[in-house]
Specification:
Elements lengths: L4 H24 L17 E4 L5 E5 L3 E2 L9 H11 L11 H14 L9 H10 L6 H17 L2 H11 L6 E2 L1 H9 L8 H8 L14 H17 L5 H8 L15 H15 L1 H5 L4 E4 L3 H32 L4 H11 L4 E8 L4 E6 L24 H10 L7 E4 L4 E4 L2 E3 L10 E4 H6 L3 H11 L1 H10 L21 H8 L7 E3 L4 E5 L5 E4 L4 E3 L3 H17 L13 E6 L5 E7 L3 E8 L12 H19 L11 E7 L4 E2 L8 E6 L23
Parallel strand pairs: 1-5, 3-4
Antiparallel strand pairs: 1-2, 5-13, 6-7, 6-18, 8-11, 9-10, 12-15, 13-14, 16-17, 17-18, 19-20, 19-21
Helix pairs in contact: 1-3, 1-5, 2-8, 2-9, 4-5, 4-6, 8-9, 8-10, 9-10, 13-14, 13-21, 15-17, 15-18, 15-20
């Protein structure tokens, strides 16, 4: 006892020195104003919700949810008090006996740890001070703690503390910690789990139950023993809690819609600023459909992984068969390491709301959003725009165009001789068949006939903002566009020319409910209803009998178009039901061939089918709306002329008033005198 006397005296003298220092600074030193704590509102995260009200993601500087003290279990608060500041309700901000005990311990160990901080001091340090360890900072901390105790009640201080305290893994406050560590609301925590949380403030990393469970259990026993000493729980309750197995929540898997969330984040940051996004606690209600988004991500990953494996196998076979220069082999092997990428956009045509957006396979690997930022050649997916220009200029689906070799002068030294994908020629065919079977030569002839400028104007009308070359190669999709642009262009067809504005946010409010932004569906007329209807009919033919026929099992009321670029670099499918439009792109980020045969129908269409199968169940729609002024007539697809219903192989085709073709012969139905059948 005598040996400890000098130590006690030193501790007492040090305490007196601290008190004197506090007095001096209190009298002369300027300190932060603590009155604002009475109305203190901590930074809260901006929350983003999908169209069904589920939390999609958050934007925050700190992971924190603020809850009132009344919602925090009493035993949880007591666990923190027992572990951190047992005299909390007795002192005025500074626990002098506690300081003396801490100093005594430090002197015994010959180590200065600056222990003995009260809950009020810890709160002050969190809100006003830096983590610096110095006598000066400690004295200021103590002074501020006393000032805080003058302006706030103990309950207010405790509430702020339990919502502000850092508990490791980027988590602040007990509400967020309960979810992060145990996947529970605070009200559902067991006593053992409460003690684990109360063990963390001393050293969140050292007692992290995920990394150091043994340490966390030792600290839990200490917390429980302190609760017994303070009379908060019995020894029996402590023993039972100490024996509880620690069941930690699984770390949350990667949330869906990462590219969509980034799209939202960028928009809000630009429009409302940094503080509003990260500190303002905004509530953002989006248009995303979680079911379709999940299916889109899963399908894209599954289909691309399988395709990637086939491409790799084919490439390895090629390498093994060929005796190539060493450099070529190395180049081929490098290609094998490139990840195959994809993008998808799905839109509700009734409202223009984006239901799903996938900008790539792995957001953590690449944040580049290929759905809205990636410009690629669309190949034949651009053809519907040319056919829309032709129909708008008076052409009909039954008009004849030649699918035969053609040659154009490219320059003085060279001519351009385009070809079809299959190297064959179908001769004279209707525009309907030319589009359905994606005939290059027929489309080039059609573009040459109607004029490049007409097609360019149509593209602009439909929302293609990217530059469009002034040459016939645009018939083969030689320009570069985004998936979003193509989807926007196609959206005018099934809506009778009333193109919806694409929406991704329904509403943004402040945390107290004040509406900052509210968006409703809007449309703009870009096509006449009859042109749009005829184009929808022609694109239905792509699925019923053309390059998209793999999807015909889904039903008749679907339209779309495949797209494949030179050397199978890009693969597309853009298609729609009367209610939902979905576009898919597949390819490498660099212009690398996916290998022979990897067309839009092979690489992109399967993903489209998966997603639309889900969309058709959730957003059923009947038939495509019929445009006023449309008439139907039966024609012979070989000649494009009107035919009798008894004639084999004839089909019904929609026409604008005054454009129905003549009969193949007057004798077939002379009494009608070429009158149009209105059905």
């Amino acid at each position: 006892m005598r040996k400890l006397l000098p130590v006690v005296i030193i501790a007492a003298l040090f305490s007196l020195g601290v008190v004197a220092g506090v007095g001096i600074i209190y009298t002369f030193g300027p300190l932060p104003d603590v009155k604002s704590l009475q109305e203190f509102k901590p930074y809260t995260s901006t929350k983003v919700f999908d169209r069904e009200g589920n939390l999609l993601g958050e934007f925050a500087l700190e992971r924190r949810d603020t809850i009132p003290l009344s919602e925090i279990p009493e035993k949880l608060a007591e666990a923190f008090i027992a572990a951190e500041d047992s005299r909390f309700f007795k002192h005025g901000g500074i626990d002098f006996p506690g300081i003396a005990r801490a100093l005594l311990t430090d002197l015994k160990r010959m180590k200065f740890s600056q222990g003995g901080s009260t809950i009020t001091q810890q709160l002050v340090k969190l809100l006003f001070l830096t983590p610096e360890k110095s006598i000066r900072r400690k004295v200021i901390e103590m002074l501020l703690a006393m000032k805080v105790e003058k302006y706030l009640t103990k309950k207010q201080i405790l509430e702020l503390y339990l919502n502000q305290i850092y508990l490791g893994n980027g988590v602040y406050g007990v509400a967020q910690a309960a979810r992060a560590y145990f996947g529970k609301d605070v009200k559902d925590l067991t006593l053992g789990e409460m003690a684990i949380l109360a063990a963390l403030p001393r050293s969140p990393g050292f007692y992290d139950p995920r990394k150091h469970l043994d340490r966390a259990l030792i600290r839990r026993r200490y917390v429980l023993s302190r609760m017994v000493e303070e009379g908060f729980i019995t020894k029996e309750e402590a023993a039972k809690a100490a024996a509880e197995p620690v069941v930690l929540a699984e770390r949350k898997r990667e949330k869906i819609g990462r590219y969509f969330l980034e799209y939202v984040r960028t928009y809000v940051l630009k429009k409302y600023g940094y503080d509003a996004l990260y500190k303002g606690g905004l509530l953002i209600y989006t248009t995303l459909d979680p079911d379709i988004q999940k299916m889109a991500e899963e399908s894209l990953e599954e289909r691309l992984s399988a395709l990637e494996e086939k491409i790799r196998d084919d490439k390895l076979k090629e390498i093994s068969k060929e005796v190539s220069p060493e450099g070529d082999v190395l180049a081929d092997m490098t290609v094998l390491e490139e990840p195959l990428e994809g993008a998808l956009l799905s839109v509700d045509l009734k409202t223009g709301e984006i239901l799903a957006m996938v900008g790539g396979r792995d957001f953590s690997r690449s944040r580049f959003n290929r759905a809205v930022m990636g410009k690629r050649q669309p190949g034949s997916a651009f053809k519907p725009i040319i056919y829309a220009a032709a129909i708008d200029a008076g052409k009909t689906p039954a008009d004849i165009v030649e699918d035969l070799p053609v040659e154009f002068v490219k320059n003085e030294m060279e001519n351009w001789r385009p070809s079809n994908y299959d190297g064959k020629f179908l001769g004279k065919i209707t525009l309907r068949e030319a589009l359905a079977r994606s005939r290059n030569l027929a489309t080039i002839r059609l573009l040459n006939e109607i004029g490049i400028s007409r097609a360019q104007r149509m593209a602009k009308r439909l929302g293609i903002e990217s530059p469009i070359p002034s040459n016939l190669s645009i018939a083969l999709g030689s320009l570069s566009v985004t998936l979003e642009e193509l989807c926007r262009a196609y959206s005018a067809f099934p809506t009778l020319g009333k193109q919806p504005r694409f929406l991704f946010i329904r509403k943004i409010t402040t945390s107290d409910g004040r509406v900052l932004e509210s968006n409703s569906p809007t449309f703009r007329k870009v096509l006449s209803p009859d042109t749009a209807y005829i184009m929808t009919y022609m694109l239905q033919s792509v699925i019923t009998s053309g390059t998209g026929r793999r999807a015909r099992f889904l039903g008749k009321n679907l339209g779309g178009k495949t797209g494949t670029t030179n050397d199978y670099v890009d693969a597309w499918f853009i298609g729609f039901s009367p209610r939902v439009l979905t576009g898919v792109w597949v390819g490498y980020d660099r212009p690398i061939s996916m290998g022979r045969g990897r067309t839009g129908a092979v690489a992109a269409l399967p993903v489209w089918i998966d997603v639309m199968k889900r969309a058709l169940r959730k957003y059923p729609a009947g038939r495509f709306p019929l445009a006023p002024g449309i008439v139907f007539a039966r024609i012979d697809p070989k000649t494009g002329l009107r035919a009798a219903s008894a004639q084999a192989g004839t089909i019904m085709v929609p026409f604008k008033l005054g454009t129905v073709p003549p009969w193949q012969s007057r004798s077939e139905n002379p009494s009608l005198k070429d009158q149009e059948d209105i059905l």
